[in-house]
Specification:
Blueprint (H helix, E strand, L loop, with lengths): L9 E4 L5 E4 L3 H28 L4 H6 L5 E7 L19 H14 L8 H4 L2 H13 L6 H6 L7 H5 L2 H5 L4 H7 L1 E3 L5 E3 L14 H14 L2 E4 L5 E4 L1 H4 L13 H5 L1 H23 L2 H17 L1 H12 L5 E7 L1 H9 L1 H5 E4 L11 E7 L7 E4 L1 H6 L14 E7 L5 E8 L7 H14 L8 E7 L14 H10 L2 E3 L32 H4 L6 E6 L3 E9 L23 E8 L5
Parallel strand pairs: 3-8, 13-14
Antiparallel strand pairs: 1-2, 3-18, 4-5, 6-7, 8-10, 9-10, 11-12, 12-13, 14-16, 15-16, 17-18
């Protein structure tokens, strides 16, 4: 059936207010449409003209520079093999503070508990150790035992002996054997209170049997400094204590340092087991230790990634410090790996395993890293000057955002005293100015743990105010502005009495006064490029920072807060 087309008609208003259909209204409607099109075209052209002429207008929009940028920096902190080393905030487990207070009192006010070493590490134990020492070809330490250590009291003359600490006779063997990481990715722990060893230490005999077996009988496949695989027992991994580095040690003690540190390490571990089972019961302190190990050590990587995925996936750039290879591998397999290019330094140290890493949003930086320039940065260090930087501490890269704008992105972990922070910044700035590899218009975004201090000491620790003056002199500003606030802390941690260097221990009521409570973390950028919209810090994993809380906690596994800033381009000057 043919479809009959209806004639085009126009609706018009008749004289007198009546309405009707005007058969000749087609031309009127067309004229009306034409007028609308002309007006719209003029409006669009005029608006575009104004937009183009205005500061930060079309040219900025097309280049991408009018967009805000969210940058996060986070020193996730290397896994601490001693679960008791730092004071934790554990409101969910009041038994923790009670235990740590009892340990503090045991050491500060030992009274009749300050018994001779020979009552804790018995002559029978020494005899067995002496046989082990001779069997591996070391010299006897019998004279040290009979004339000195056996007669000392366990607290005032051993644990609190500053000279013993200066000689590193207890801390050195702990550093080397606390955890043994094997070539197949497994970890094995020395039987001691201050490692992640999880078997029972219910009494001295149980501990001593396990300790001897670990140090002298078991062998582990490990890599040497040149990457070769060797099978060694922990006693073979110990290193001589050199007088040139530790002047307190005598020449004879240096010669005997391998068996001597083994003896002191055994006494130290034995005292700790005795102390824990004196102030508490094994069925109380050991489950508490396992809880800490599970959350802060074994699950540290998982907890860290969960926080980043839950709270910081909206960041365009995430600069991380002290990152393990395990975290990088796991991040690439998780949600983070789908959203970010995850970049590690070419000179990452697999043994130390504490490297700086950069995450670039695939949406904002679709091509990822264009080139790593860490080696160029390090080549800018002054000749003949020793800068305390280890492999993996610095990562600097070139990249382009989605609009084709060039950036230098850097992540850096400063040395403990912060003395490398200024030289590293100067080297980055020099590389951007002098290197032909770096585009001249590249913009710097730099997230770092500067390891600066509220009150630094010239030549010893980097003062935060001096640091602020320096980055401003380089034409930079920070997420905190040109002038840092001394009390704008991003760390709050303090050592307990359960670690080999008691001179660093803090009493419960002195955690803030004597702990590491300092303004250490920064995000830097050119003052002429960006201005701050908002900055916040986080020590809870919930974008909230609690100033009066020591951390890590069971929910927040780092001793540095997370720092995030939102910046926007500065309007171009007329």
């Amino acid at each position: 059936m043919a479809v009959r087309q209806r004639p085009a008609i126009a609706y018009s208003r008749l004289p007198g207010g009546a309405s009707g259909i005007a058969g000749g209204g087609r031309s009127n409607l067309q004229n009306y449409r034409n007028k609308i099109v002309v007006v719209l075209c003029i409006t669009i052209l005029y608006t575009a003209f104004l937009f183009y002429r205005s500061p930060g207008g079309a040219r900025s929009f097309l280049s991408g520079s009018s967009r805000k940028m969210q940058v996060t920096t986070f020193n996730i902190a290397a896994i601490n093999n001693n679960p008791f080393e730092y004071w934790l905030t554990m409101p969910e487990n009041p038994g923790y503070e009670e235990l740590m207070s009892k340990i503090e009192n045991f050491i500060e006010n030992p009274g009749d508990k300050d018994v001779p070493v020979s009552q804790v590490f018995t002559p029978e134990m020494f005899g067995e150790l002496e046989q082990r020492i001779k069997s591996v070809g070391w010299v006897s330490v019998k004279s040290y035992w009979e004339e000195d250590f056996s007669k000392r009291n366990i607290v005032t003359q051993f644990l609190k002996d500053g000279t013993l600490g200066s000689k590193r006779l207890a801390s050195m063997p702990d550093r080397v054997t606390n955890v043994i990481s094997t070539t197949d990715g497994k970890s094995f722990y020395r039987p001691t209170v201050i490692s992640m060893y999880e078997e029972d230490l219910n009494n001295q005999q149980m501990w001593w049997k396990a300790w001897q077996s670990f140090m002298f009988e078991k062998k582990f496949k490990v890599k040497d400094n040149e990457g070769r695989v060797e099978e060694k027992a922990p006693w073979e991994m110990l290193q001589k204590i050199k007088k040139s580095k530790y002047p307190a040690i005598s020449e004879q003690e240096e010669k005997d340092s391998l068996p001597l540190q083994t003896l002191c390490g055994a006494i130290f571990d034995g005292i700790l087991v005795h102390m824990m089972n004196t102030v508490s019961q094994p069925e109380a302190w050991q489950p508490l230790k396992r809880t800490i190990v599970e959350n802060l050590n074994k699950k540290k990587v998982a907890h860290t990634l969960e926080i980043l995925e839950a709270q910081y996936m909206d960041s365009d750039i995430i600069a991380l410090q002290e990152v393990s290879n395990s975290l990088v591998d796991q991040a690439r397999k998780r949600k983070l790996g789908g959203y970010y290019h995850i970049i590690s330094p070419a000179n990452a140290d697999p043994v130390r395993d504490q490297n700086s890493v950069i995450l670039l949003s695939k949406k904002r930086f679709p091509s990822g890293s264009k080139k790593e320039i860490t080696d160029i940065v390090q080549s800018m260090f002054p000749e003949g000057k020793d800068i305390p930087v280890a492999n993996g501490d610095i990562l600097a890269i070139l990249t382009k955002d989605i609009a084709g704008e060039d950036f230098v992105i850097a992540s850096f972990h400063g040395d403990t005293n912060g003395l490398a922070t200024i030289p590293v910044l100067d080297a980055i700035v020099a590389a951007m100015k002098k290197s032909e590899s770096v585009p001249k218009k590249a913009k710097l975004l730099f997230g770092l743990d500067a390891n600066t201090y509220e009150s630094g000491e010239t030549g010893k620790t980097q003062d935060v105010m001096e640091w602020g003056q320096h980055f401003v002199s380089q034409g930079l500003t920070s997420c905190w502005g040109d002038v840092p606030q001394k009390n704008n802390y991003t760390t709050y941690n303090a050592r307990t009495y359960l670690q080999p260097q008691l001179n660093k221990a803090c009493k419960k009521e002195e955690k803030r006064e004597k702990g590491d409570v300092n303004p250490k973390d920064f995000i830097l950028f050119s003052k002429s490029d960006y201005q701050v919209v908002r900055t916040w810090k986080d020590n809870t994993g919930e974008r909230i920072y609690k100033d009066d809380m020591a951390f890590p906690t069971l929910k927040f596994p780092s001793d540095h807060g997370i720092l995030t800033t939102i910046i926007e381009p500065k309007p171009a000057e007329e």
